[in-house]
Amino acid sequence: MRIDVLFADRVGIAHEILAVLAKRRLNVVAVEVDPPHIHIDAPELDVPSFGQLDAALRTVLGVESVTPIDILPGTRRRLHLDALLAALPDPVLAVDRAGRIVVANAAAATVAGRSEAALTGADFGRLFGDPELSDLLVDNGFRLNTGQEVTLNGQPFLLDATPIVEDGRPAGGVVTLFAPSRLGERLNALQNFDEGGFDRILGDSAPVRSLKARAARVAAVDAPLLILGETGTGKELIAHACHRASPRRDKPFLALNCAAVPESLAESELFGYAPGSFTGAQRGGKPGLLELAHGGTVFLDEIGEMSPYLQAKLLRFLNDGRFRRVGGDREQTVDVRVVSATHRDLDAMVAGHSFREDLFYRLNVLSLQVPALRERGDDILLLARHFIARACAQARRPPCRLTVAASAALLANPWPGNVRQLENVIFRAVTMSDGAYLDAADLELAGARMEAESGAEPAEAASWDDALAAFERGLLRRLYPRHPSSRKLAARLHTSHTMIANKLRKYGIPDGT
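Request: output the structure for the sequence above.
Response:
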């Protein structure tokens, strides 16, 4: 039986309590003293004799109660800790202040190819074939952030150490080993991709519906995907939605903008580097995005800006899934789907010999064309209202609405910067205005200023839809005589021919003018 003795603390009381059990010849196998409690494990103590022991212990000055318990708190804590360690998928090692392993979980034993008992007492650095690693750990006070790479039984890991502090000094530490793909999952979780899948891509125009339908089909096919479209159309959003709809959805999605980093840095970011490959390199080397995203997706934005050297290296990886780190001599194989995107005309670049033809065909197994905002004019106001709501929330101001003139200005604008430009225009307007409505002048658009300077006031209408329809009708009536076809008028307004044809038919133009 195990008992919990509650007492008023004083010198020698624990000794007197244990003496009572010894006098009754009860064998004690475990004692945990945690004032005002002393927990005792006496296997020979049974229920019939407990009452007599309870009475005897209460004669000791300071003893307040004696209660049977199912397990000692320290034992319970140890069992819970063992269960937690066993459940952790990453190798975990507890190391003492001398750099020797005290505790290892099952994952560490599996990777090391030894039992947990065999790991206990082993030198931490020698386990990884690097005796200096123990000194590095101790000298840094067991504070090492994830990034120190080590190799255990031929497998690369990134080391993260947290100190155990006793009396203000490190008394050892807990070391966690992350496989590169596991770190990639952590990086993926930190990315702000709250937009989700295709259902969060705003738009109900025919071009967007067609894009979503095609994207849903190619997402499920495990092959390279090339996304084409003007800058600001949301190519990365489409790429992430395809990843979310693919069998790789539970693995990392990591991105590299090929236009934002120089060639040497882009190479090490994508392929990683080996120990000592260049001055300033991390001790032990560093994995690249391909290793971090193992099992998932790597998104190469602005692939048209990639240097010829990196194009050749990427081509080899796409051929067989193998690569070498910068400065390394060991080939590695990873399972990664490559999704790329560009706003440039790759066909013309191939013809001009500035982009490898063989790489173009390897990347262009599947393709998507993202429509420009002017080709999906029916979505402009829907997107604008969404951006207004988000901007108002960010600015912590009451919601506001577009006036009819502002809506017309948004519809008439050519949007060379596409959705990104629209979002920036709305955010700036919301930030710089205080009213309940956003007018055309608030949008800081050339078209909006022209409408504002014209002095024309929209006629009073019964509803928002009526007012918008009146403006659309008036705009098309004014412009149609100068651009007397749906195609010419669509070119003038920088929007789709289909939308203009539908609007002309709706308002009976030209016959109904």
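Residues 447-459 have pLDDT under 50 and may be disordered.
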